[in-house]
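Example for tutorial group B:
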């Protein structure tokens, strides 16, 4: 019984330390605007890097709906940075119907958020304007800097943790 507990404690510690350098991204379904919240959950600043959200492998084959006459349905919402705009090197360009967005990070301090609203539609569901957590499952987030690239996948609870470089 004791070795099992030691292994369990080691696994918990390993899981806890895996976020020492990392960003958590949450997708929050909303009407009319959906929201992505990126939080630096690590102990290091995130700087000089790119975070790419790629919806192409999502269960709902999600897309960004940012114009009235495009690939999306009904309501559309353009990209709006609602928190942490100073963390970006530049504002990202999002074309209607695309399934990726790249956020060029200048500096995101420990504990800080970068949040944006946008309309996300599914392309294979029955209610294209409403996206559930299970529909974003399979979408990926990649972190890339001059040295490394790490990729993680959204879970069905619409959250993903991606490792960043250590301090």
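The residue assignment follows.
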């Amino acid at each position: 019984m004791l070795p099992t507990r030691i292994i369990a404690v080691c696994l918990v510690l390993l899981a806890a330390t895996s976020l020492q350098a990392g960003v958590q991204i949450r997708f929050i379904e909303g009407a009319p605007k959906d929201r992505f919240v990126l939080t630096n959950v690590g102990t290091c600043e995130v700087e000089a890097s790119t975070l790419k959200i790629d919806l192409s492998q999502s269960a709902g084959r999600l897309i960004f709906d940012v114009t009235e006459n495009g690939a999306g349905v009904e309501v559309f919402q353009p990209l709006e940075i609602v928190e942490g705009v100073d963390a970006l090197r530049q504002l990202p360009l999002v074309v209607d119907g695309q399934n990726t967005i790249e956020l060029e990070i200048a500096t995101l301090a420990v504990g800080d958020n970068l949040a944006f609203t946008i309309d996300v539609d599914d392309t294979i569901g029955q209610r294209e304007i409403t996206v559930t957590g299970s529909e974003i499952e399979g979408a990926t987030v990649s972190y890339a800097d001059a040295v490394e690239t790490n990729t993680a996948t959204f879970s069905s609870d619409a959250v993903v943790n991606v490792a960043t470089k250590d301090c």
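The first strand starts at residue 22 and ends at 28. Compare this with the pattern of hydrophobic and polar residues in the output above.
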